[in-house]
Amino acid sequence: MQNPQFQTAPEPKRLDWTTMVVPFLLIIILCLCFLAAPDASKAVLENLRSFLGENFGVGYLAIGLGIFLLSIYIAFSRYGTIRLGKPDEKPLYSNFAWGSMMFTSGLAADILFYSLCEWVLYANDPHLAEMGSIQDWASTYPLFHWGPIPWSFYVVLAAAFGFMLHVRGCHKQKYSEACRPILGKHTDGLAGTLIDLMAVFALLAGTTTTFTLATPLMSQIVSELFGFSDTRLITIAILAVTCLVYTVSVVSGMKGIQKLAASCVYLFFALLAYVLLFGGEARYIIETGFSSIGNLVQNFIGLSTYTDPQRTTSFPQTWTMFYWAYWMVWCVAAPFFIGTISRGRTIRQTILGGYVFGLGGTFVSFIILGNYSLGLQVFGKLDVMGLYAASGDLYSTITAIIRTLPLAPMVLVLLAAAMIAFYATSFDAIVLVASAYSYKNLTSEDEPHMAIKTFWSLSLILLPMVLIFSDNSMANLQTVSIIAAFPIAFIILLIVAAFFKDAKKYLSSYHGI
Fold first, then answer.
1. For residues 62, 68, 74 and 76, what is the CA-based torsion angle, rounded to 10 degrees?
2. Burial class of residue 184, CB neighbours in 10 A (0-12, 13-18, 19+)
3. Could you give the CA distance from residue 245 to residue 497 in angstroms, rounded to a whole number?
4. How far apart, in whole angstroms, are the C-alpha atoms of residue 481 and residue 105?
5. Which residues of 438-456 are buried (b: 16+ CB within 10 A; e: fewer)?
6. pTM of the predicted model, to two decimals?
7. Handedness of CA 426, 431, 432, 433 (dihedral sign)
């Protein structure tokens, strides 16, 4: 039950103004720099990103594979028996409610956007020719880049944060607090402040660009349906509607978020079912999906450790390292939310449940939507690769794919509704995490005040609206978030080490193990 002290207006002394304001101001300053000197800022950021990828890229790959292997060890070791809460506590949410909130909080509308088109981005890459055929690998790599390793970041950190909140009863919902078993008193000093500043900065940079990634597709859908010109004003209107939906939801508390997540799941699976059953490619979709999963399992270690040391194609630098870095940035928000809603479950249930719901929903999306569009190419029904090569526009390519379905306008409406629901549910989680960061102390039973949640709801939408007017600024800010993943990677390792130290102490004290 929410603590009454948070029902009234938040007292200024309760707020952590440094963590709340400084990262936000830094993002504003960066945006102004991007708008004033787009070419120069882009050159500097691209050089820095290239330097990190070329010289430290193997570190991203090693951390990704290491965290995945650790997740399996934690789940089936004695650490997996720890219950996130009291020893006899029951789960806070039903399996469906928990799974739907977990799945939708970890993935924005990007999953629908990329499910329909990601294989196109790989299809002409020389690395696929080295590996084999487009049929075999264009459908496998999306499962790899959105699969076990990305979700392992989420579930391992969710276990650490859940342990911190529900077992140790910490009153600070911050990255730095998860490092306390190792940092000790330094958590309350400069070291802890720097960790939290980097975390919130990465969160803002990552979410701002994510918001602007798929909204142009929704704008194009509106233009397709109503004949409007595809303008920035339509995109801004869509952002405003999305903001309204998730603001109403997050202000109404966890019940609102739970209902929105359930609605998102229903829309999501309705879209997938329609494409599978009425797209005319069901056999191909299922068989290609089954083969791609087998291909992934058989080659998982090789894919996870491939570095292209001779730089024949630079595929891992361009794609795999990029994805691992971007997922690390998103680890600032999603695992905190997953850890919060996992109260009453064991760490084993949290990790394995995360894989079941997270991987299950992700794989089904890429298998059905991705293989439908791949089937159009393979069987000569639509030259998807040719359309993208000619226009360089993924948004028009996706709408062309949708037009091949029966009752295409209805599918476009369903796609747009599902994307808005995905954005709203994922940003609900982000708003809650950012709001919790705004407090010096906040228990897991308390929710941030409505005013703080509203502040972050509006803040997260204003920057994307500004960046809509500059494509270079969006690309630059995305590069900033990738660069920010470099220090975040070390913080993730620190959190994992702190979890093992504290959990081992807990097991020894309470179970004599």
1. -130
2. exposed
3. 38
4. 19
5. bbeebebebbbbbebbebb
6. 0.89
7. positive
Please name the residue that has the structure tokens 């999603």: 334
Residue 493, Cβ neighbours under 10 Å: how many?
A: 13
Mean pLDDT of 261-284: 93
- Alpha carbon distance, N-terminus to C-terminus of the chain: 33
d(C-alpha 512, C-alpha 156), whole Å: 24
Which ranges in 404-446 belong to alpha helices (H)?
Answer: 408-437
Establish how many alpha carbons lie within 13 A of residue 265's alpha carbon, considering only the half-sphere containing its beta carbon: 21
Q: Where are the domains of the chain?
A: 11-215+247-437+480-510
**What is the rounded CA–CA span in Å between residue 426 and residue 311?**
36
- Residues 485 and 492: their CA atoms lie apart, in Å, by 10
Closest CA relative to residue 44, chosen from 479, 481, 482 = 479
pLDDT at 11: 62
Asked if 323 and 152 count as a contact pair (C-beta separation under 8 A), the reply is: no
Mention every residue, 6+ apart, whose C-beta is less than 8 A from residue 179. 187, 192, 195, 491, 494, 495, 498
Can you tell me the mean pLDDT for 429-451?
80
**CA–CA separation, 504 and 79 (whole Å):** 8
Q: Tell me if residue 83 falls in helix, strand or coil.
A: strand
pLDDT single digits (tens) 117-152: 899 988 888 998 888 888 889 999 999 999 999 999
Q: What is the dihedral of CA 340, 341, 343, 344, to 10 degrees?
A: -170
Which residues lie below 8 Å from residue 63, measured CB to CB, with a gap of 6+? Answer: 324, 328, 489, 492, 493
Do 176 and 391 form a contact (C-beta atoms < 8 A)? no
- Tokens representing 322 are 């990029």
Q: What is the pLDDT of residue 110?
A: 79
Percentage helix, strand, coil, to 5, in the chain? 80, 0, 20
Cα maximum dimension of the chain = 69
pLDDT at 2: 43
Q: Are 244 and 252 in contact (CB under 8 A)?
A: no
Q: Distance between CA atoms of 513 and 502, rounded to whole angstroms?
A: 13
Residue percentage of the chain with pLDDT more than 90: 43
Structure confidence at residue 231 as a pLDDT band (50, 70, 90)? low
Closest CA to 67 of 265, 354, 278: 354
Q: Which residues contact 2 (CB under 8 A, 6 or more apart)?
A: 253, 445, 446, 447
